[in-house]
What does this fold into?
Amino acid sequence: MSTKYTEDHEWINVEGDIGTIGISPYAAKQLGDVVFVELPEIGREMDKGDEAAVVESVKAASEVYAPVGGEVIAVNEALEDAPETVNASPDGEGWFIKIKISDADELDALMDEAAYKTYCDGL
Amino acid sequence: MIDLKQTKLHSLHVAAGAKMVPFAGYNMPVQYPLGVLGEHNHTRAKAGLFDVSHMGQCFIAADDGTFETAAKALEKLVPASLTDLEPGQQRYSQFLNEEGGTLDDLMISRLGFEGHTHKLYLVVNAGCKDADYAHIEKHLPDGVSLDIKDDVLSLIALQGPKAAEVLGAMNSAVKDLVFMTHTDLPLTKTIWVHVSRSGYTGEDGFEISVKHDDVEELTKLLLAHDDVQLIGLGARDSLRMEAGLCLYGHELDPSVSPIEAGLIWSIQKHRRSADAGYLGAARVANDLADKSTKRLVGILPEGRAPAREHTEIQDMDGNSIGEITSGGFGPTVGGPVAIGFVGRKFTKAGTAVQLIVRGKPRPAKIVKMPFAAHNYYRGA
It folds into this structure.
């Protein structure tokens, strides 16, 4: 089990061929108060870089992109009534979707935690 | 990249941890560490302090020293009636082009201070001010002059239910001002201000015009009060949206008449005819009579998804009937709110419409504005 990060501040936590996707605490802080999350339908196939979800703060809407390709197998329905969970626990209860990863090799292009931290420090 | 201007409170914003963004040529605080939601709620509950020094401030006065000459000159450029303004009275109006489209919206006050009641004081939008000044200069007759004060005056706003108590502790005379009145007074032994009881949040509050040299000292004195918190442009936008107030560049632009924008209340009855004698009067009269013209309405989306600016509005049969001009989350409402233009037959409160958000139709209904009740002080 490992967590990888994108330059767009998504994270994916991998267990076997299942990946749980969310946004990093850095991203959640930059967005500000999250008031709505639009999640995809279960069963949707997406490629790496496709729009996986939309997260809306008071100020603006932002896209969340799929860190790797796969099929959506679960969405965090709790975010419908409690979108603020994204701010309270971005790397825990504020996860967005789970996917069945189609090509595990795509994970290699992502940053590990140390590399992501260095990346954020440089922003 | 254009050099951004700074207000005299720039270093104070930065020290307070503000996130600064470019806005109308200025580097302005969009939010402080409290965040947009917290700042919005603080303003509705206590008192929010806004730096709005990017806005334009100017005076108009006549060489003959009479108010009437100055008022008559400016009445050629705005729909509002001005010659009947009492000393210290303030009105909201708009600069219109010849076609009756809106060049800017503004506040106009007749000064109330003895010896100065012949002068008009104007506050205009930051993004429009240079064009406004050129427009005024072009149209003012000989013997009436424009005096731009942006090199001398800052502007701050104190808004919220605690505003009168906080400012009243510095000079209790401010408590006697009612909504849309204006006066000059000292807040300390050395700091004199123009102060009006008005604002852009729907709350009771004040806009305070103060010399550049004094603005930081005054701001710090106000911030020393436990109930006062700095508020950024983010919350300023959500507050004005819930109050149903127009924002230039969104609801208002050179194609939109004040009638379309729902601003008929700002045009006194005798100023509504085509021969009222100001630029754009024919359009105002036409749009009042012509049922084909669009109207600005409040829109309440069902569910939690905000519908942002430029979202298409459709009727229930899927026909396009308009577009959202401002939309987002209303913290006081506790859900999404939006403002937009629709055809005249869709303006009735309760009318069901759909909003096309990311390609999907979402149900919404037309509602009366404001979304959050106004709390203006109109007298004890």
